[in-house]
TrEMBL record:
Keywords: DNA-binding, Transcription, Transcription regulation. This is TetR/AcrR family transcriptional regulator. The keyword Cell membrane does not apply. The keyword Metal-binding does not apply.
Length: 191
Protein backbone atom coordinates (compact mmCIF):
# COMPACT_ATOMS: atom_id res chain seq x y z
CA UNK A 1 0.00 0.00 0.00
CA UNK A 2 1.39 3.43 -0.95
CA UNK A 3 1.81 6.23 1.58
CA UNK A 4 -1.06 8.11 -0.10
CA UNK A 5 -3.36 5.07 0.23
CA UNK A 6 -2.31 4.61 3.86
CA UNK A 7 -3.06 8.25 4.65
CA UNK A 8 -6.46 7.97 2.89
CA UNK A 9 -7.32 4.94 5.03
CA UNK A 10 -6.19 6.72 8.19
CA UNK A 11 -8.23 9.81 7.26
CA UNK A 12 -11.33 7.70 6.62
CA UNK A 13 -10.92 5.79 9.89
CA UNK A 14 -10.28 8.97 11.88
CA UNK A 15 -13.27 10.79 10.37
CA UNK A 16 -15.58 7.88 11.17
CA UNK A 17 -14.32 7.41 14.74
CA UNK A 18 -14.21 11.11 15.59
CA UNK A 19 -17.73 11.58 14.18
CA UNK A 20 -18.97 8.58 16.19
CA UNK A 21 -17.21 9.23 19.49
CA UNK A 22 -15.55 12.63 19.46
CA UNK A 23 -11.89 13.55 19.21
CA UNK A 24 -10.99 12.87 22.84
CA UNK A 25 -12.59 9.41 22.89
CA UNK A 26 -11.10 8.22 19.59
CA UNK A 27 -7.76 6.60 20.35
CA UNK A 28 -4.80 6.24 18.01
CA UNK A 29 -5.05 2.46 18.51
CA UNK A 30 -8.67 2.49 17.32
CA UNK A 31 -7.90 4.72 14.34
CA UNK A 32 -5.02 2.46 13.30
CA UNK A 33 -7.13 -0.67 13.83
CA UNK A 34 -10.00 0.61 11.76
CA UNK A 35 -7.56 1.65 9.01
CA UNK A 36 -6.00 -1.82 9.08
CA UNK A 37 -2.52 -0.69 10.04
CA UNK A 38 -0.23 -0.51 13.07
CA UNK A 39 -0.37 2.29 15.64
CA UNK A 40 3.15 3.30 14.63
CA UNK A 41 1.89 4.03 11.13
CA UNK A 42 -0.23 6.88 12.51
CA UNK A 43 2.80 8.40 14.23
CA UNK A 44 5.02 7.82 11.19
CA UNK A 45 2.56 9.62 8.91
CA UNK A 46 1.40 12.39 11.24
CA UNK A 47 3.56 12.53 14.37
CA UNK A 48 0.64 12.81 16.80
CA UNK A 49 -3.12 12.52 17.13
CA UNK A 50 -3.44 16.33 17.05
CA UNK A 51 -1.35 16.51 13.87
CA UNK A 52 -3.59 13.82 12.35
CA UNK A 53 -6.65 15.93 13.18
CA UNK A 54 -5.07 19.06 11.69
CA UNK A 55 -4.10 17.20 8.51
CA UNK A 56 -7.57 15.65 8.38
CA UNK A 57 -9.24 19.03 8.66
CA UNK A 58 -6.98 20.50 5.95
CA UNK A 59 -7.55 17.52 3.66
CA UNK A 60 -11.33 17.59 4.05
CA UNK A 61 -11.67 21.35 3.76
CA UNK A 62 -9.49 21.35 0.63
CA UNK A 63 -11.73 18.71 -0.98
CA UNK A 64 -14.83 20.62 0.12
CA UNK A 65 -13.53 23.87 -1.36
CA UNK A 66 -12.55 22.14 -4.60
CA UNK A 67 -16.09 20.76 -4.93
CA UNK A 68 -17.56 24.24 -4.47
CA UNK A 69 -15.09 25.90 -6.87
CA UNK A 70 -15.71 23.23 -9.48
CA UNK A 71 -19.46 23.71 -9.23
CA UNK A 72 -19.25 27.48 -9.79
CA UNK A 73 -16.75 27.40 -12.62
CA UNK A 74 -17.91 28.95 -15.87
CA UNK A 75 -21.45 29.76 -14.73
CA UNK A 76 -23.33 33.05 -14.61
CA UNK A 77 -23.28 34.44 -11.04
CA UNK A 78 -26.78 33.40 -9.88
CA UNK A 79 -26.41 30.01 -11.56
CA UNK A 80 -23.05 29.67 -9.80
CA UNK A 81 -24.69 30.45 -6.45
CA UNK A 82 -27.30 27.76 -7.05
CA UNK A 83 -24.59 25.32 -8.13
CA UNK A 84 -22.49 26.06 -5.04
CA UNK A 85 -25.48 25.48 -2.74
CA UNK A 86 -26.18 22.19 -4.51
CA UNK A 87 -22.49 21.19 -4.38
CA UNK A 88 -22.44 21.83 -0.62
CA UNK A 89 -25.52 19.63 -0.17
CA UNK A 90 -23.96 16.89 -2.30
CA UNK A 91 -20.60 17.07 -0.51
CA UNK A 92 -22.23 16.85 2.91
CA UNK A 93 -24.48 14.03 1.73
CA UNK A 94 -21.43 12.11 0.57
CA UNK A 95 -19.17 13.09 3.49
CA UNK A 96 -21.60 13.44 6.39
CA UNK A 97 -19.04 12.27 8.96
CA UNK A 98 -16.63 14.98 7.86
CA UNK A 99 -19.36 17.63 8.13
CA UNK A 100 -20.15 16.51 11.67
CA UNK A 101 -16.45 16.60 12.50
CA UNK A 102 -16.17 20.07 11.01
CA UNK A 103 -18.92 21.40 13.25
CA UNK A 104 -18.18 19.51 16.46
CA UNK A 105 -14.43 19.30 16.60
CA UNK A 106 -13.48 22.77 15.47
CA UNK A 107 -15.42 24.07 18.49
CA UNK A 108 -14.07 21.56 21.01
CA UNK A 109 -12.36 22.86 24.12
CA UNK A 110 -8.64 23.10 23.57
CA UNK A 111 -9.02 23.15 19.81
CA UNK A 112 -7.31 25.80 17.69
CA UNK A 113 -10.55 27.42 16.57
CA UNK A 114 -8.97 30.58 15.07
CA UNK A 115 -6.73 28.48 12.81
CA UNK A 116 -9.61 26.17 11.87
CA UNK A 117 -11.86 29.16 11.15
CA UNK A 118 -9.20 30.73 8.90
CA UNK A 119 -8.78 27.47 7.02
CA UNK A 120 -12.54 27.02 6.53
CA UNK A 121 -12.90 30.64 5.39
CA UNK A 122 -9.97 30.51 2.95
CA UNK A 123 -10.90 27.20 1.34
CA UNK A 124 -14.71 27.13 1.38
CA UNK A 125 -16.48 30.27 2.54
CA UNK A 126 -14.33 32.46 0.28
CA UNK A 127 -15.60 30.44 -2.70
CA UNK A 128 -19.14 31.46 -1.75
CA UNK A 129 -17.89 35.03 -1.28
CA UNK A 130 -16.36 35.09 -4.76
CA UNK A 131 -19.67 33.95 -6.26
CA UNK A 132 -21.58 36.58 -4.29
CA UNK A 133 -19.11 39.32 -5.32
CA UNK A 134 -19.58 38.34 -8.97
CA UNK A 135 -23.34 38.50 -8.55
CA UNK A 136 -23.11 41.95 -6.94
CA UNK A 137 -20.85 43.16 -9.79
CA UNK A 138 -23.33 41.79 -12.35
CA UNK A 139 -26.18 43.65 -10.65
CA UNK A 140 -27.90 40.41 -9.65
CA UNK A 141 -27.55 41.07 -5.93
CA UNK A 142 -27.92 44.22 -3.87
CA UNK A 143 -24.96 46.57 -4.24
CA UNK A 144 -24.83 47.12 -0.47
CA UNK A 145 -24.61 43.40 0.34
CA UNK A 146 -22.02 42.65 3.07
CA UNK A 147 -20.40 39.86 1.07
CA UNK A 148 -18.23 38.51 3.91
CA UNK A 149 -21.12 38.11 6.31
CA UNK A 150 -23.42 36.84 3.57
CA UNK A 151 -20.87 34.22 2.48
CA UNK A 152 -20.54 32.91 6.05
CA UNK A 153 -24.31 32.94 6.45
CA UNK A 154 -24.94 31.05 3.19
CA UNK A 155 -22.25 28.47 3.92
CA UNK A 156 -23.42 27.95 7.52
CA UNK A 157 -27.09 27.83 6.58
CA UNK A 158 -26.51 25.16 3.95
CA UNK A 159 -24.22 23.16 6.25
CA UNK A 160 -26.77 23.00 9.07
CA UNK A 161 -29.74 22.44 6.77
CA UNK A 162 -27.84 19.61 5.06
CA UNK A 163 -27.08 17.90 8.37
CA UNK A 164 -30.71 18.32 9.44
CA UNK A 165 -31.83 16.85 6.11
CA UNK A 166 -29.45 13.89 6.30
CA UNK A 167 -30.29 13.16 9.94
CA UNK A 168 -33.99 13.94 10.30
CA UNK A 169 -35.40 13.88 6.76
CA UNK A 170 -33.21 11.44 4.81
CA UNK A 171 -36.06 10.46 2.48
CA UNK A 172 -36.69 14.04 1.40
CA UNK A 173 -35.33 14.63 -2.12
CA UNK A 174 -32.27 16.83 -2.29
CA UNK A 175 -33.94 18.90 -5.02
CA UNK A 176 -36.61 20.00 -2.52
CA UNK A 177 -34.00 20.99 0.05
CA UNK A 178 -32.05 22.88 -2.60
CA UNK A 179 -35.19 24.66 -3.87
CA UNK A 180 -36.11 25.80 -0.36
CA UNK A 181 -32.61 27.14 0.28
CA UNK A 182 -32.61 29.00 -3.03
CA UNK A 183 -36.06 30.48 -2.29
CA UNK A 184 -34.70 31.81 1.01
CA UNK A 185 -31.64 33.29 -0.68
CA UNK A 186 -33.56 34.86 -3.55
CA UNK A 187 -35.95 36.49 -1.13
CA UNK A 188 -33.22 38.09 0.98
CA UNK A 189 -30.27 39.09 -1.14
CA UNK A 190 -31.44 39.64 -4.70
CA UNK A 191 -32.08 43.09 -6.14
Amino acid sequence: MSRTETRERLFTAAIELIAERGFAAASVDEIAGRAGCAKGTVYYNFGSKNALFTALLEYGVERFGAALRGAAEGLAPLDALSAVVRAELVFIGEHESFARLLIAETWRAGGDWPQAARLIRERTIDVVGDVLRSAVAAGDLRADLDVGTAASAVFGMVLLVALDWRTLQPDRPMDEVHATLMDLLRGRITT
